[in-house]
Amino acid sequence: MNLYDELKQAVIDGDEDMVAELSEKAVAEGTSPVDAVQEGLVKGIEVIGEAWKAGEAFLPDVMMSAEAMKAGLAILEPEIAKLGMGDGNVKGKIVIGTVEGDIHDIGKNIMGAMFTAAGYKVFDLGTDIKVEEFVKKAREVGADIIGASALLTTTMIGQKQIIQYLKEQNLRGQFRVFVGGGPTSQSWANEIGADGWAETADEAVELANRILAR
Amino acid sequence: MLPKYNVLTDEQVRAIHEESIRILSEVGMEFGYGPALAVFQKEDQNVEGNRVHFTREFIEDKVRLAPAEFTLHARNPEHNLVCGGDHIIYMPGYGAPFIHEVDGSRRKTMMQDYDNFVKLAGASKNLHMTGGTVAEPQDIHDEIRHLKMLYSSIKNSDKCFMGSAEGRERAEDSIEIASILFGGREVIKEKPVLISLINSLTPLKYDGRMLGALMAYAEAGQALVIASLVMAGSTGPAALAGTLALQNAEVLAGIALAQSINPGTPVVYGSTSALSDMHSGSLSIGSPECALFISASAQIARFYKVPSRSGGGLNDSKIVDAQAGYESMMTLMASTVTGINFVLHTAGILQYFMAMSYEKFMMDDEMAGMLLHYMNGFHFDEDGMAFDVIAKVGPGGHFLTQKHTRKNHRREFRTAELSDRVAYDSWAKEKIDTNERAHKKWQKVLANYVPPALDAEVDKKLQEFIAKRAAKLM
C-alpha cells in the first residue's frame, strides 16, 4: 500500500492517531500535501460517506472518520498554506454552535461531522454561544454558512437574533444562516428569515450543497 | 395487584449500585450552580470548581432519608395520590413543542392545546393527574408561560399537577401559586401539592436552571422527580448495564442533594434512558432497550426504597399507526408490570417526545385503562371462582342468562372504550381506523367536559398574583 492508500484506509478506520502519524510522515518525506489530502483523506471520507448513505456504516463510523480527517488536515493544511495555496479544495466553510442559554450539543456535533465528511471546513464554537461570537468567528474565517442549533423552545429565539444582528451590522448578505434542532421547523426558519433548515444532518449537507452551488 | 416483574437479579442490582458509587467517587459530577456546590462543601464532599467527587457514605446515608412513599394533595381530596408502594399514577406527556394532527401534519403547540390536554386528562378515568407542560404553549411569552400553564392546570381540573422546573424563580412562582390555592406555605410544606421534573444533563452534569428549581422545591417541602435520560451510544455508553450505572449515579447525586437541603424531601427516582439510533443519532424510545431501562429503573428504585418514575406510551412514530400502538404498549406495559409508580408521558406522545397528538392521547388512555384492568389480576372469592353458577348451568348450557353473569361481568371485564370489537360488516360500512376513531372521540370528550368549579375568592387571588408577576416579568 502506498502512503495515500494508507491515509485513505486510516480515515475509513476512523483511526485518528494513525492518520496523524501518516500525515506527519507525508510532510517529512516531502510528499505533496495537496495530494495527501485529495488522494488520501478525501478518498477515505468519501468511502465512509457512501457507506453511511447505503445504511452500511453507522454514525460512530462517520463521526470517527471525520475526527480522523480533521487530525490529518490539522497537519497537512499548514503545509498547503506554506506552498501559497489556499483551501481551494474545500467545498465551503461553516461556523456552527448551539445558541446562548442552550447546552445541548449532540445534534450539532453530528451535523459538524456530516459536514466534515462531505468536504466542508467546520468551525465548531461549542454550546451557549452568543450572537456576537457566531458572527465574529464567521467574519474571521470567511464562512459561507452560520449554523445555529437550539433544542429548547425557550432558546430558539437566539437563532432569530443572529439574523437580526447580521442585518444591524449590514452583514446579512455575507453569510447564509442555517437553523436546526428539535423544536425548530421550516415554518420557524421562514418566520425568522433563515436561509436554510433541515431536520437531519444529512439533509442539512444536501441543502448546503444546493444553496452554495447556486 | 399482580406481583412485580423483574429483569435484574438482586446481585445485578447491587452491581449497578457499586458501579454508580464508583462513578460518583472516581469520576465525579459537575454542578453548574454555586448554592448546590456550597451544600456539597458543607457536607464535606470533595469540591473542585464545579466538579464534585462523592463518598459512598454520603450518597448512601442521604438516599436513605428519602421516604418510601408520600401523598400528593389535590384541590379535590378525592384525587389525592399516594406515590410509591403498589400505587401507579398515569398522566399526560410532558414538554412537547409540536402537535401532530390526525392527517399527519405538524404545527406548533399553543395555549389552547395546553388547556385541552388538561381537560382531557381531567375527564379521563384512567389518568390520575394532569401532569405538567402537557404542551409548550409557544403563543405565550417564555417569561410568563409557567404562570399561564399553572393557572390552566388549576382552573381546568381538580387533579394533582406539576410545578415549573425552569429555574429557581419559576419554581418560587409555582410554590407561591400553590400556596394561594391550598392556604399557605406551611400547609403545603406539611402536605406536598407540587411535584416537579428535575433532569440531569447527561453525562454527569446538572445545570443551574434545574438545580435552582430543585433547591427551591426541596426547601419548600415539595416533591421532586429526579431524572436522568441517558441516550445510550451518544450521551452514554453503547452498553445497557453501563448506561444503567451512569443513569443511577446521576439520580443518586440529585436525590442526595435534595435530602441534604431538606431531609425527608419526597423524591421519585426517575429515569427513562433510551438509545441513540446509530444511523440518524436521534433518540429512540419505542425500543426494546428503552423497555429494559424502564423495567430496571423500577427495580433499582425498589432497592433504594424510593418511588420510581419512568416509561409511558413511548414510541418513535409520527402518527397514530401500528408502530405507535405496538411500541407504546410495550413501554407502557413494561412500566406497569414492573412497578413504576409515576408514569409521566402515559398519554399523547409521538416521535420520541417531540410531539403530542390528541388521537394518540385517546389511544393511550385506552391502553392505560386496559393495563389498570390487567393489574387487577384475578378474583379468588366466591363470585370469582363461580362454582355455584358452573354447577347450576351444568354440561352443555350457557351462562348468558344467569344473574351471576349479569352482575359479575361488570367487575371482571373491562368495556373497551376506543377499541373496535364489532363484526366485519358493521365495521366495513365506514372502515374507520383507530386514528379516525380517536379523532372523533377526543372532540366529543372535550365538548362534554365541564371543569370542576374553583372557589371564586381563590380564583381572584390567583389571577391577581399572576397579573402582578406577569407585569413584572414582561
Summary?
Helix content of chain A is 57%, strand content 10%. Chain A is of the alpha/beta class and 214 residues long.
Explain what you see:
The complex is a heterodimer of chains A (214) and B (474). Helices cover 57% and strands 10% of the residues of chain A. With 214 residues, chain A is of the alpha/beta class. In chain A, strands 2-1-3-4-5 form a five-stranded parallel beta sheet, sandwiched between helices. Chain A is globular. The termini of chain A are far apart. With 474 residues, chain B is of the alpha/beta class. The A-B interface holds A 52, 55, 58-60, 103, 106-107, 110, 153-154, 157, 182-183, 185, 187, 200-201 and B 97-98, 106, 108, 136, 138, 142, 166, 201, 207, 231, 233-235, 238, 276, 278-282, 354.
Characterize the overall form of chain A. globular
Overall shape of chain B: globular
What share of the residues of chain B does DSSP label as strand, in percent? 5-15%
Mean pLDDT of chain A: 91
> What proportion of the residues of chain A form beta strands (DSSP E)?
5-15%
Count of helical stretches of chain A:
9
The neighbouring-strand order within the major sheet of chain A is 2-1-3-4-5
What name is given to the CATH topology of the largest domain in chain A? Rossmann fold
Oligomer: heterodimer
User: What is the mean pLDDT of chain B?
Assistant: 97
